[in-house]
């Protein structure tokens, strides 16, 4: 009953909003990649525990099927929300983990909650709420809610409307905001692929995070778990910038677990990621021209 009242309150607050003339932004998007706040050494036990728990932070199993089935409202809505979140992260100089968290919240919410049809403003409100929650978790400086809504959005929401949507998101996600994303693993995998278990350079980390962020543009990578995406990205980026070294003894516990899960899918992922990485590099080159 409380949740129904919350949704009704959201609808009443913005009932005068007209969503005719919705414009879909097709322009390229970029995100700044600041230094990530990883710990210096993640133990094997912690990483294994993360792998075991990561499924708790994923969208429901039928979400990607709904996206692939041609649900136009869901696909267009997700793309518009992604575009806005990406641009807002760039303007506010939020880190890539903030972006990944916001998209994680958005996808998880959409996978378990059907938004009313014909109300385009609700998805924009959801995007603002998800980014606001992610920024509160990950960033040291968070702008006021009215200032968070950058660019030229068709709808601008009052703080109380965003806060109501934040509460609805929190309830649907069961307050699990410390989500495990590919960013959570990337330093570990990069280090394991270096000679003598060396700490990865900022260049390697930055490049990897750019590729991880790029994987969220499409829906196909939702099929893979965060650890699988991170491993494939680390392998691809390490191969670009340095010679890859494998220590079978240190990798064996984690890789044995990964091999038990979707071995063929992981092989396909390792095939696709270099193309995503290439597109990311090409985008940066086009921006410099």
TrEMBL record:
Listed transmembrane segments: none
Keyword Flavoprotein in record: no
Organism: Arabidopsis thaliana (Mouse-ear cress)
Source species, domain of life: Eukaryota
Domain Cyclin-like: 83-171
Protein name from the UniProt record: Cyclin-like domain-containing protein
Recorded family membership: Belongs to the cyclin family. Cyclin D subfamily.
N-terminal signal peptide: none
